[in-house]
């Protein structure tokens, strides 16, 4: 079309293409928002933690029994977890259970079993962390 000596182009886009473009732009916006949120959480909670930070924990009572109880709670919570917050909490429970198993003394008859459970609990903790990061 020519108006006042200028050429104008009018594009007629069917409704299906408009919906497609709208969904595409919405998806791009959502992806950008999730990336921003992930980066913000990483920057706030992970990047600021010194790698040389050492956590000293004092356990009272029977660490083996406490670890079993924590592991049981983490296992139950894992069956109803829905959000990344849930999965991060579960990962922390598994890690605490692993830490408790790791301090079972050599003199305890359950020491060998505790070492095996500590390794398994660490794997469970990593699995829960991966689930948490996948839900961000």
Task: Tell me what you see in this structure.
- The chain folds into 2 domains: 2-41; 55-134.
- The protein has a two-stranded antiparallel sheet.
- With 136 residues, the protein is an all-alpha fold.
- The model has no long low-confidence stretch (mean pLDDT 80).
- It is rod-shaped, with a radius of gyration of 26 Å.
- The protein contains 4 helices and 2 strands, in the order ββαααα.
Key descriptive features of the protein:
4 helices; rod-shaped; mainly alpha; 136 residues; two-stranded antiparallel sheet; 2 strands
Helix and strand topology:
Blueprint: E1 2-3, E2 6-7, H1 15-46, H2 63-78, H3 84-102, H4 111-134
Please summarize what this structure is:
This protein has helices spanning 15-46, 63-78, 84-102, 111-134; strands at residues 2-3, 6-7. By secondary structure, the chain is mainly alpha-helical.
């Amino acid at each position: 079309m020519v108006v006042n000596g200028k050429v104008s182009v009018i594009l007629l886009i069917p409704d299906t293409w408009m919906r497609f473009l709208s969904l595409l732009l919405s998806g791009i916006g959502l992806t950008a928002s999730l990336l921003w949120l992930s980066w913000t959480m990483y920057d706030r909670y992970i990047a600021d933690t010194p790698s040389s930070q050492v956590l000293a924990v004092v356990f009272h009572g029977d660490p083996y029994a406490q670890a079993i109880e924590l592991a049981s709670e983490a296992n139950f919570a894992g069956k109803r977890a829905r959000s990344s917050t849930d999965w991060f909490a579960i990962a922390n429970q598994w890690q605490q259970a692993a830490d408790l198993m790791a301090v079972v003394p050599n003199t305890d008859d359950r020491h060998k079993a505790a070492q095996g459970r500590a390794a398994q609990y660490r794997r469970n903790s990593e699995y829960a962390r991966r689930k948490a990061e996948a839900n961000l």
